[in-house]
Amino acid sequence: MNNISDEICSTLDIKTRNFEYFSFAIDESVDIKDTVQLEIFISGINSEMNLADLFLNLVSFKNTTTGRDIQ
């Protein structure tokens, strides 16, 4: 399992290293068990004007989603 995780992190590192500009997006949804989930994305553009949208993480919360919880 660590090999897959390491490969994903390595790929993200390589792709994001070449970004000239980037932005983060966070979206909140609730699953069927009423668990709040935050989806975290990064969008970036490199010097050749190629755009990339990358999924970074899905974080589940049981109680609240305040700024303090998200840290």
Structure write-up:
The protein has two helices and three strands, in the order H-E-E-E-H. With about 70 residues, the chain is an alpha+beta fold. The protein has one domain. Strand 2 and strand 3 form a beta hairpin. The longest helix is centred in the first third of the chain and has 16 residues. The two termini are about 25 Å apart. The model has no long low-confidence stretch (mean pLDDT about 80).
SSE inventory with pairings:
Elements: H1 2-17, E1 19-30, E2 36-46, E3 51-61, H2 67-70
Antiparallel strand pairs: 1-2, 2-3
What key attributes describe this structure?
3 strands; 71 residues; 2 helices; extended; alpha+beta; three-stranded antiparallel sheet
Compressed to H and E, one letter per element, the order equals HEEEH
How far apart the termini lie comes to 25 Å
Q: What overall form do the CA principal axes indicate?
A: extended
SS class: alpha+beta
Mean pLDDT: 80
Count of DSSP-assigned helices: 2
How many strand segments? 3
Query: Strand order of the main beta sheet, please?
Result: 1-2-3
Low-pLDDT windows of residues: none
Main beta sheet: strand number and arrangement? 3 strands, antiparallel
**Radius of gyration, taken over Cα atoms and rounded to an integer in Å:** 15 Å
Portion of residues within helices: 25-40%
Number of domains: 1
Sheet-strand content, in percent, reads: over 45%
